[in-house]
Amino acid sequence: MIPQQIIYNFQMERFEIFKAQNPENAKFDVAFDIGGKILYANKFILYPISSTFEAMLSDRWTKTDDPIKIEGYLYDDFKQFLTFLYSGQCELSNDNIFAMVDIAEFFGVVAFKDFCEEFLVQTECTLDNVFLMVEFAKKYSLKKLEETITKFITDNFAMCFKSVQFQALPKSTVKSLIEENQETPMQEEMFEGVFQWAEKQAKESIEVGNGLDLNGAIKNAISEFLPLIKFKSMNSVFLIQYVVKKSFLFYADELSDILWASNKLFAKVTDKNGKIMKGEIQCEDTKWVSTYPDFCCWDTVLPRVPEPEYNVTLTKNDKVEWYLLIAFNVGKYQDIAIEIVNRVFDDDYLIAELFAEDGFEFSKDCKIEIY
């Protein structure tokens, strides 16, 4: 038997004694009082791995044999924590996980904190829990969880930013989410969601009497975020139909600059379930592309055009999963099409990088829009 296995077996014997919680049959030398219930343990198991326990179990704190009171935690949660210290595992659930992370933080047990974070990373993200976990991950510096949450929000950007859950977030969290997603191609959806959030905050502030009218209260709530949103990357239709109607948010020169810069074209692909992927048209000659504002790529027959004399401005990037392109064949360009990156070839003329929401399904039921 290898030494590691022997040590493990010894530790499991100690764990079985701990589980029995029989002070008459075991040499426990510390007791904890959690809400009136007593939990017995061994100091030599606890203090080497936690400076908090080391201080708590020192003579400065415990000069008698009285149980040490544990405040702020449930008996079952604290018992699961000690179970982990004895055995390297314990029972985590959606009901106790937040308390367990707090215990790990308070007692400074990094291994237990990592164990809890792995549970959270494996938990399915939904609209009902994702923003709660955003704030929780930042509070406890759970980097892996932050990465998981960021991916979910990126993949479900429009759904997240335009949800009622987003509207209930505190201002600091909203600002953080905007800063983390400044490079998103979905600037329109971000502004819509942030404006709806600001409108809700404004109505609530008016109810308590802040002395502002609705427009003034909205501007007061959203003004800090406006410099973080890339209005010049938005398409002209959205700017005219949505942003201009919110002109009270901007100085005249600011709005003028935004509108002058709105000469870009965008592509949006919508699947049968309403999920979208989109990107900016990046070819030099956008005039002929703009003449096909609404079509399905497998049904459209575009006019054959000769190979352009200018150089291609967009090159393949393996980090981009989808492309809008014109397939080239026998000296002529074919229809506009969508291809996954591993099926993009050197003679394809790329016109847009496309970024998809999570759950986007590419099929014959998709619709392409150029706007």
From TrEMBL:
Gene3D superfamilies the UniProt entry points to: 1.25.40.420, Potassium Channel Kv1.1, Chain A
Organism superkingdom: Eukaryota
SUPFAM superfamilies: POZ domain (SSF54695)
One family name in Pfam for this protein: BACK
Domain (BTB): residue spans on this chain: 28-94
CDD domains on file: BACK
InterPro entries documented for this protein: BACK, BTB/POZ_dom, SKP1/BTB/POZ_sf
Name of the molecule in the record: BTB domain-containing protein
Source organism of this protein record: Panagrolaimus davidi
Record lineage: Eukaryota, Metazoa, Ecdysozoa, Nematoda, Chromadorea
